[in-house]
Design a protein that fits this description.
This is Enoyl reductase (ER) domain-containing protein. Belongs to the zinc-containing alcohol dehydrogenase family. InterPro entries: ADH-like_C (IPR013149), ADH-like_N (IPR013154), ADH_Zn_CS (IPR002328), CAD-like (IPR047109), ER (IPR020843), GroES-like_sf (IPR011032), NAD(P)-bd_dom_sf (IPR036291). It is a single chain. The chain has helices spanning about 50-55, 105-110, 155-160, 165-175, 195-205, 220-225, 240-245, 260-265, 290, 305-320, 335-340, and strands at about 10-15, 25-30, 40-45, 75-80, 90-95, 100, 120, 140-145, 150, 185-190, 210-215, 230-235, 250-255, 270-275, 295-300, 325-330, 350. It is an alpha/beta fold. The strands form four sheets. Strands 3, 4, 5, 8, 9, 16 and 17 form a seven-stranded mixed beta sheet that branches. A six-stranded parallel beta sheet has the order 12-11-10-13-14-15. A two-stranded antiparallel ribbon has the order 1-2. Helix 9 links the parallel strand 14 (about 270-275) and strand 15 (about 295-300). Helix 4 packs across helix 5 (about 195-205) and helix 4 packs across helix 10. The radius of gyration is 20 Å and the shape is globular. The mean pLDDT is about 95.
Length: about 350
Amino acid sequence: MAKTTPNHTQAVSGWAALDSSGKITPYIFNRRENGVNDVTIKILYCGICHTDLHYAKNDWGITMYPVVPGHEITGIVVEVGSNVSNFKTGDKVGVGCLSASCLQCESCKNSEENYCDKVQFTYNGVFWDGSITYGGYSKMLVADYRFVVAVPDNLPMDRAAPLLCAGVTVFCPMKDNNLIGSPRQNIGVIGLGGLGHLAIKFAKAFGHHVTVISTSLSKEKEAKTKLGADDFIVSSNAQQMKSRHRTLDFILDTVSANHSLGPYLELLKIKGTFVIVGAPEKPMDLPSFPLIFGKRTVKGSMIGSIKETQEMIDICGKYNIMCDIEIITPDQINEAYERIEKNDIKYRFVIDIASQSSKL
């Protein structure tokens, strides 16, 4: 049983996995009262991240059941604490992966709290009061205002929800590698899924030449005509890979399936940068010669800080960047999980939390 405190008096309707079967079922639980540093949010939409499936099925061996997934949350503020000055009732807001951090370490003080050793997540984490955190598959959320962002008025709340995880995950590597406001560069994006399609949109908005690298030739038309990619490489086509040798300045790898980095590194120019945001279950094959003979850099990156998340979503408002989604109702979550495992989605499921349709 998840820990609660006497302050957890608000009964909330949600949807949870109760065991490692991963099946999502209706679940009533308690949230804390709105504190001085809190905002209470009526949840309208919540995106489904592949991480949700891993936690629901305890794939990583760390799930605390029952688990209420969901860290791509958008909604409306309905109550604010006395210490909160940057939000008011009626505001459009979002909550991503983070619910708490120590606020004192070097990472926190440098607005990099996502790398804090004591960071806690929106669900399956432990909040400051010792309670287990429950995520966005629910009707409402109480969140510390320091972990909440404002959603621009021009962004629809449903298509903005996945930006709170997928969006910031691909945005931060571009920011960190000076791809915002820089001269036109040749950018490669490996994988055309929930992360990859947003990476294309950001890179094009920043004025770069974008090459999509995929195992599926069938995705070329969509990558170019719908998403605006400039070039497309089928990674299994040796001739195509060879013809793009040393043509890219930067590659973002969004793929979570096991794959060798060697062939992709050869696409980079001398001193090119390769950033990994996908998380395969097994260690990656990283040959040394493409690094040594190309003076190339391989880096990793995860989500972003709250400051970066706010910057990201403001840029999305400026450039009208939104996630391509399929809306579902809560009774369709289990079906959505099955389709995600089959890669049968373009490109993100979003749960209409406020929908009255639920047969679960």
